[in-house]
Each structure stands twice: as structure tokens, then as C-alpha cells.
Specification:
Blueprint: H1 2-26, H2 36-43, H3 47-53, H4 57-76, H5 84-97, H6 99-106, H7 112-133, H8 141-163, H9 170-192
Helix pairs in contact: 1-2, 4-7, 5-9, 6-8, 7-8, 8-9
């Protein structure tokens, strides 16, 4: 059992090194220009070790996207109804803690597929929270527009924060996004509430 834990740690450490190396290279060049040899040399891992974990660079990149989505799902799964401050503090804390990878995935060069997955997560969480908070039983097209407004603005602000290298104080940004979300939520509640 102890040997298995060590192997699992070693595999996690290897995957982490490969992800971090890929992020560094992606900040310098396009994914199609990165070779496995270049990546494995950078992180001092044998190519066979790379292939025991991933098929190719694109597989590693896809794994990174999946990991981020899973981690953000964990943040979203906390019931933030009535408490947008908790949600934004968790999300921005995660982004701030993972600056290098966040520059890649939340900065200006976000992939369309990742952006769609991310907005889908946020959209569903926002609709669920607002419908629960204001006892709304059916989601209409009009509700989709309200949610899209919040998503576009929120992700735009987060992207700007990342692009400006996290200079703006996170705590103030959390307050700002929470106030905006609460304000739009109240408008939403006044319009659609079944209470």
C-alpha cells in the first residue's frame, strides 16, 4: 500500500511537471509548434514517461482543460445562493493561486471549446442559484439573456484582471463582482419571482 501511494505521488508529480512545462511553452509559442521532446527536455522527464501518461501534446492540453473544469465545478458546487461573495472569493482565489495556468485559460487566448465549457458551467450554476433564490420554476429565453449579461460581464472583468497581471486587488474585485451579481439578481427576482 505504501508503495502504491509513492507511485501515485510520483505520477501526480510527473503530470504536474508536464502541465507546468506545457503552460510555460504555450506562453512562448502555439501548441502545434511544441514537440514532446522539447517539453520532456524542459521538465527533465523521459519521453517514455510522457507516453505512459498521454498520447500527445493535445491529449495533455485536453487533460489540463478537464482538470480546470473539474476544479471549477468544485467551486461552483458550493451553494452560493444568497452569497455571491463566497462564489467570487472562491473563483478568484483559485485563479489567483494558479496564476500561470490562469493566464493561459482566462487571458485573451482562451480556446473556444474551453470558453464554451466554462460558460456552460457558470450559466447552469447562475440559473440554478437564481431560480432557487427567487422560486422561479421555468427557464425562459428572457432568463437566458439576463444570465448571458452576467456571464459576459463577469468573465470579461476576470479576463481583464488576468491580462493586467492580477494588479487590481482581489478583495475589491470580489466585492465589485458580488455587488453587480446581487444587483442583476435582484432585477431578475423582481421580474421573475414566483413568491
Amino acid at each position: 500500500m505504501n508503495k502504491k501511494i509513492k507511485e501515485d505521488r510520483r505520477v501526480r508529480k510527473t503530470k504536474k511537471a508536464l502541465r507546468e512545462g506545457l503552460v510555460e511553452l504555450l506562453n512562448e509559442k502555439n501548441i502545434q509548434d511544441i514537440t514532446i521532446k522539447e517539453l520532456t527536455d524542459k521538465v527533465d522527464i523521459h519521453r517514455s514517461t510522457f507516453y505512459s501518461n498521454f498520447k500527445d501534446i493535445y491529449d495533455l492540453y485536453s487533460h489540463m482543460e478537464d482538470s480546470i473544469i473539474q476544479e471549477i465545478e468544485g467551486i461552483i458546487s458550493v451553494d452560493c445562493t444568497f452569497k455571491p461573495h463566497i462564489f467570487f472569493n472562491g473563483l478568484l482565489g483559485y485563479i489567483n493561486k494558479n496564476k500561470q495556468i490562469s493566464r493561459l485559460f482566462f487571458g485573451g487566448n482562451i480556446s473556444t471549446v474551453f470558453f464554451e465549457r466554462l460558460t456552460g458551467l457558470f450559466k447552469n450554476a447562475c440559473i440554478d442559484a437564481w431560480c432557487k433564490e427567487y422560486s422561479v420554476t421555468s427557464v425562459t429565453e428572457e432568463i437566458d439573456y439576463y444570465v448571458q449579461f452576467c456571464l459576459s460581464g463577469g468573465l470579461g472583468v476576470i479576463g481583464m484582471w488576468v491580462a493586467k497581471d492580477f494588479e487590481y486587488p482581489m478583495e475589491i474585485l470580489v466585492e465589485m463582482l458580488s455587488e453587480i451579481d446581487s444587483g442583476v439578481g435582484k432585477v431578475f427576482g423582481n421580474k421573475f419571482s414566483q413568491k
